[in-house]
Amino acid sequence: MLINLSDKSFQSIQSDLAIIITSKKCLDTLEDKKILADLNFKASDEEVVLLAEKRNVYVGCEDDSYDCIAIAISAAIKEIKKTKFTSLKVELGTSCTDKLKALVEGAIMASYEFNKYKSKKVKKEKLNLTIVCSKITTSLVNTLEDSLIIAKSVNKVRSYVNTTPEDFYPETFEKEAVKIAKKNKISVKVHGEDYLDKNNMHSMLAVGRASRHESKLIHLTYKSKNPKAKIVLVGKGLTYDSGGLSLKPAEFMAGMKSDKGGGCAVLGMINAISKMKLDVEVHVIIGAVENMIGGDAYKPDDVLVAKNGKTIEVKNTDAEGRLVLADCLVYAQEKIKDITYIFDFATLTGAALVGVGQYTTAIMGNNSSLKCKAVSNALKSGEYATSLPFNRFLKKTIKSEIADISNLANSRYGGAITAALFLDEFITDENKDKWLHFDIAGPAFVSHSWGYNPHGASGAGVRMMVEFIKNIDKD
Ligand code: BES
Ligand code: ZN
Ligand code: ZN
């Protein structure tokens, strides 16, 4: 989809269709109010009417929030995609950057399609959207550029995650990371299993041992001239999670190509941040591993020694993400000094899905005000997020009789939190208040399309982190 701004009069702009985003209040002022009334159009969210002869598409929008506007433009685009119309116009009205952001991101995310595995590729002409405003200001132009970068990065992440485990394995992660680094001002280092072995990363190594694909630790760095902050973004990149010897039942295994969602998201984040030239230093660390079964597989009952020397009793090989992240977090904190923030993104637990639903990211950590900041930036960016609380009793549930800790809590409850408390064991005292864990198991993969998200990966994490980093020096 191509998007441009115009300050000509709405009527004078030639297009196949005009998209009219309308609230209940405005129904009476509309040109086609009679037909709309006959069609029982109430201007509710997600309600669309396409009047082909009139060349008008009406969409309901209940308020001016990001959610309503992005969902409205997305509803219109989904309807228009069924037709042969390609050139579109929509009115922005006043020079409101927030509204423009929602329109652009909603439109680009809604126009995403993943056809890689369709044998018949239907060649469709690209949609062309003109956003009409009264005056083209610099801030509108900047917002358009940034929103295009953000939404395209979201779509990039979606395509990575949607790719099958046969086509996207740790080496593919490496190739894509190198591609992103080459196109932007980013340096990249990739470490294979020899390095992991020599550097005592036996927690991560164990998870990938039964895979025919070599595990990779990928480290990308973006540095602006005068960085205001040093941010480390760690991603769980399980290119497939079969559960290992604690094998997943068939109905839970299907879909586990999405277990690389965190790793792909951090790649999308650094792509967007470098393209937006944000004034920060960003390190992205991806633990790219495949969790498989076989004679060489790691086992429940094994005791693993992580990079920081802590011993971990393996009680369940399906709780593998935390084992990979443990070593990646230690690697990050040893390599990178004077960190401002260290955040990890992971499709870590089914419990997060159960606890907060499939639309929301669960944010955890020791620093309450940082959690609040992360939640409010997420909401501002258009993503849903909430925070979950730690407590001393949940902390005790990951104790082990024979090792320092266990990778499985001794209680069935609070699984998203106990997983995060496991990760906390690998955060140094210096970084305790700088660390947050983002469990994106819910929103990373969409089973039944919602809003501007089609079935498949959603690109969760990218918008919220770009927003957080953009606002880093604001209180
Ligand atoms: N990758 C899964 C978590 C997951 C579940 C992500 C559903 C997306 C959708 C993770 O590795 C896992 O299997 N976690 C286990 C942990 C348990 C064994 C403590 C889980 O959540 O059941
Ligand atoms: Zn698992
Ligand atoms: Zn997993």
Written description of the protein model:
The chain is of the alpha/beta class and 475 residues long. It folds into 2 domains: 2-136, 3-Layer(aba) Sandwich (Leucine Aminopeptidase, subunit E, domain 1), CATH 3.40.220.10; 164-474, Zn peptidases (Aminopeptidase), CATH 3.40.630.10. It is built from 15 helices and 19 strands. Helix 9 crosses helix 15 (462-470) and helix 12 packs across helix 15. The two termini are 36 Å apart. The mean pLDDT is 97. The structure holds ligand BES and zinc ion (2 copies). One zinc ion (ZN) binds at residues 238, 241, 259, 320-321. Ligand BES is lined by residues 241, 259, 316, 318-321, 347-351, 353, 408, 415, 441.
CATH topology of the largest domain: Aminopeptidase
Main pleated-sheet profile: 8 strands, mixed
Total DSSP E strands:
19
Mean pLDDT: 97
Task: Note the main attributes of this structure.
Aminopeptidase; six-stranded mixed beta sheet; 22% strand; 2 domains; single chain; alpha/beta; binds ligand BES; Leucine Aminopeptidase, subunit E, domain 1; 19 strands
Summarize the structure.
The protein has helices at 33-38, 66-80, 97-110, 138-162, 170-183, 193-198, 202-207, 250-253, 261-275, 321-335, 350-356, 368-381, 392-396, 415-424, 462-470, and strands at residues 2-6, 17-22, 48-51, 56-60, 87-93, 128-133, 186-191, 216-223, 230-241, 281-291, 303-305, 311-313, 341-346, 360-365, 384-387, 405-406, 435-439, 445-446, 456-457.
